[in-house]
Amino acid sequence: MKAIPVPEIDGAYLFEPTPHTDQRGFFSRTFDRDVVASVGIDPDGFAQDSLSRSRKGVVRGMHLRGGAGEAKLVRCSHGAIFDVVVDLRPDSPTFRNVKTFELSGETQVSVYIPAGCAHGFQSLTDPSDVSYRIDRPHDPNEDITISYKDPELDISWPLSVTMVSDRDERAPSLGEALKSTR
């Protein structure tokens, strides 16, 4: 497994495993504490693992946490997703940068998203399973949602959006969400 810095989002990394493939399928290590520690991330700092399953065209996001924020390690374990990270840390050299990735069950690549960054994705397959490893217990009182269709973010979702949650549909613009975090 190797760690690859994401220059567009300061502190973000892709963790690229080395799948071992044969006639049965494949075996892949999806987390390696030594590799994670080698780039300054505390491998023991994760508090919860979660999983979402989405249908093709579903968008989940854009989400982040207030307070101390929330760092995430995100991987598509089955299917494929179009993944989006937005740096919303005012003191970051990559503030307001948007970076997209395609994550898939074929590659098992994970993306580390630092606290203070918004995250969302669109399912490219039916279904897609997304695994999240987060660094502190979830507190719904700290949830912040930004409109996935905000023109300032200018995210080009690759498929027609087939479904979003009510919360995501009613989400404020980036500007309004940033005001509420100050």
TrEMBL record:
GO CC entries: cytosol
CDD domains in the record: cupin_RmlC
Top-level taxon of the source organism: Bacteria
Location of the active site: 63 (proton acceptor), 132 (proton donor)
Family matches, as Gene3D superfamilies: Jelly Rolls
GO biological process: dTDP-rhamnose biosynthetic process; polysaccharide biosynthetic process
One term of GO molecular function: dTDP-4-dehydrorhamnose 3,5-epimerase activity
Entries under SUPFAM superfamilies matching the protein: RmlC-like cupins
Family: Belongs to the dTDP-4-dehydrorhamnose 3,5-epimerase family.
Name under which the protein is recorded: dTDP-4-dehydrorhamnose 3,5-epimerase
Source organism: Amycolatopsis rifamycinica
